[in-house]
User: Fold this.
Amino acid sequence: MHAGAWDRAALAERLAKVLPAGAPDPARLAARIYRRFGEGPPPSVTALAAFMREEKLLEPLFEGKGIRGPSLEPYAMGRRPDLLAAVPLPDLPTLRDVGRWLGLSDEEVSWFADVRFRQDKLTEPKLHHYHYSWIPKRSGGLRLIEMPKFRLKEIQRRIVREILGRIPPHDCAHGFTRGRSIRTFAEPHTGQYAVLRLDLKDFFHSVPIARIAALFRSLGYPPKIARVLQGLCTNAISPPLAGKPFEKLPWHERKALQDKHLPQGAPSSAPLANLCAWRLDCRLEGLAIRYGYRYTRYADDLALSGPSSLARRAEFIEALVGAIATEEGFCLNYRKTRLRLSSQRQRLAGVVVNEKANCGRAEWDRLKATLHNCAKHGPEGQNRGNHPAFKSHLEGRVAHFAWLNPARGEKLKSLLGRIVW
Assistant:
């Protein structure tokens, strides 16, 4: 019953092959099963078996040993949502199909997906799929970057290119999405009286692992294949390989990293986090519409803006957003919540939005002074940040400012052109 497309007609067809003569009508039984579990992704084998044990229509068959042997049909792709029916996704009904798609053997697919949960127990770096590095946070402490090794990174890039990249995220999600940026994230909030900025805590690590497999199941992949795809995109770190900073983390953070999670540093983590936050975006957009506000999200940065009523309701709205985030498996970092009125500098993801999307005046003045000093005294003594490629660093910053404000950017480009390297 579990090995095939999860719709009423296909389920009735498979039941007809195993039910003996005189058994309940397969179509009727399929309708009862379908009504119990709905038209979404198929239930787990355990849930399906529990339902069948309690199904009164099958009691005579269980008592009389009247059911034939199992019908060993191969798994088949399930039904996709109607909006994604025309999206070209690879058909991967079996593990062998996954191997052919990736150019790997069945054993290699299982090893890269860590189906036996051995990666978190390894002490030999050569056998582990990830490199680890620790970088300082601006707020203090260290952040763990988990970088997949070459072969696994290529596998994850293919999953992004041929599966995840073809599924559009929510319209309010602007991070890690082609055609969207911090500018499209900030522009809907320009010229608003109040801007409320909120932050999700440990965004990648907070994505519920079950939701990742459920996402792949919703795309039509059988449960076993969904778990394999989930395994290819997640990681459970090995404490001996993570280094001494890992031992200094609080217990709950160490536990989250030792369990399967989205690794920060893998190419598949950002699109997966965006898609898994679909319900969060839907509910927060509905909240914004209910009160006449605007809502956008850039990765873990949430932004709500609106008239003066938002300033009066700020604490209430923050509590509602926190409750919704908790229900969806995320958590707000309340210490980073900021409310800015039109009389203050309203800034989102480094973009000032008081009147239009613009660069900050202080940052522009500092960069202008640096370029002026480089042109006048030479660049050798101006690299106070010890950037290894100082010229490229300045070119990138000038390009960023020119992208946000072309008029100011031309002045900076003129100064940059006067520097003798």
The first strand starts at residue 130 and ends at 136.
